[in-house]
Amino acid sequence: MFQKILIANRGEIACRVIATARRLGIRTVAVYSDADASAKHVALADEAVHVGPAPVAESYLQAGRIIDAARATGAEAIHPGYGFLSENPDFVAAVEAAGLVFVGPSAQAIRAMGLKDAAKALMDKAGVPVVPGYHGSRQEAEFLAERAEEIGYPVLIKARAGGGGKGMRLVERAGEFADALASAQREAKTAFGDPACLIEKFVPQPRHIEIQVFGDACGNVIHLFERDCSLQRRHQKVIEEAPAPDMPEEVRAAMGRAAVDAARAIGYRGAGTVEFIVDGSGPLRTDGFWFMEMNTRLQVEHPVSEAITGLDFVELQLRVAAGEPLPVAQDDLKIDGWAFEARLYAEDVAKGFLPATGRLDYLAFPEGTEFDRGPVRIDSGVRQGDEISPFYDPMIAKVIVHGPTRSAALNRLTTALEACRVTGSVTNAAFLAALSRHDGFRRGEVDTGLIARDLGTLLPDVAVPETSTAVAAVAALGLLRPRTAADPWERLAGWRHWTEDTHHALLERDGARIERAVTQHGRGRFTIDGPKGSLSFTIAAAGGTVYTLDIGNTRSRVEVVQDGARVTVFDGSTGASFELPDLLAHVEGDEAGSDSLVAPMPGLVIMIAAAGQSVAKGDALVVLEAMKMEHTLRAPRDGIVAEVLATQGDQVSDGTILLKLEAEDA
Hints:
Number of domains: 5
Number of strands: 39
CATH class of the largest domain: Alpha Beta
Distance between the termini: 74 Å
Shape: globular
CATH topology of the largest domain: D-amino Acid Aminotransferase, Chain A, domain 1
Number of helices: 17
Radius of gyration: 27 Å
Structural class: alpha+beta
CATH architecture of the largest domain: 2-Layer Sandwich
Low-confidence stretches: 489-495, 584-593
Strand content: 25-35%
CATH superfamily of the largest domain: ATP-grasp fold, B domain
Largest sheet: 8 strands, antiparallel
Strand order of the largest sheet: 14-13-10-11-12-15-22-20
Mean pLDDT: 91
């Protein structure tokens, strides 16, 4: 076994690898960019080496610097994590040429599966079923449009070097094909440096089921059952589970054999995932699944498979890379219970799931294990006080649960998600909790279109409950926590000889001013007057940030977090944040008019309309690239582009005015 390894990654996966290495007595070396100098993975590692500025192309993708760091620190092997250089065959070759061990498959195996078109041809030859489509090298737009017509709409455009939903577009009619292809090619070029795309028949009610495989240098290949990753948004996984619901044993065996055949066809070594698209229009069938792609690395969702098998996949990776045979055979494996993983992201669900940034002023998770099997497991690469920057994936944590049955595990997932507390950035926690409660999902009726179909019922209610506003008003006045002074007169909070004690609280939310009159009737008893009447509550108990409230005949719990000039009230999985304005700062700046198009997030301007251009409501005016994905900003109304305040290639920040419109007759 190795004595020291370098981890060529950052964030959650770097922390995950460090945890297993530490348990095995292996020393670790982290690499970091300027933006990650104080990151969690740097603090956890035994050593750390700086590899460049914040942009990934100048740091985490600098293969030479990473290899130099490994050699300089005496590391014997490099673990790539996932993303970045993990599926780069040239990096693997360079690692081995430097006399180091790559913890993963060979460069030849990665090349075989790296381009989707070549991989599908190889799988077809190996007898693994593949989706009908065009997987050739010709990329002329007209030619690809003709192939789409032959295949029959709807079709899926997919970057041949793609992954994570990048460079992927669903096209339902011929008139949409040209624009979708151009957008997919641009995104693929940005994300992978390869704009080439393939065209496939779109399965109308698809399920995304993948098989975890492992191979060793002795020729052993096993599968560790399946994961269902059908709950997706924009082709990106949201909640994953293992095993797949309603999976007949004969279909599991057939998919497992196909995955093992795929791995054997390329002499696979290490951890890998064979992904299948599955017909979900009825019961799963042995002839109803097709090879989609193979990920030649550890998957983000690997903890759910660890939970149902009891194995540590990073340990298996390290042992196989060190030349050891797999410690288990296929017949040794069995499924234990059920597991789910939900990806907690810094993203604004109400604004179309736009990635968000911000400082994590308060961060609290439910009690559980970290990077280790347990009923509740939280894998996170950030800590309270860390920044979510625009340079990297905005994932805050993976919430993983395990239970004896699907229903028990799903209940545990809902409870865990409702206990996640984050301030300083918006998150998708409430959306994930709503998804975990979705009736169809709970029945196991999953397919990749579920979220899009039922999005309206899954979006969190943007209206803030008056209870949250009332509690925030009391907190803003510093009255929530009972006084504990030794003087008995001090403990008579709110007592007045002739009248009751009334205060006026001023809050702000989304730029709107909120005023509430708060009357204190004694210790822990309040009435708050609002625009639609009054609300009274009594604080029945308080512990830490949690308050138990009696409102009429109802008892409920809320959590209140105050940091600086902001107070956040959590009610279940929903949190409402209020700013506490400076009462002396009464001079307000001019607000941008409704005819201004403003950047909703930090990003790179890929396309922007020209001054003088006539536009109709809904026309694409700006394309921003953020987190390696394209986001289109559209005209709010008909008009003319009066002024353009940004240019293609500009890196803009959140709130930047990009262009201004005016009426055509102005």
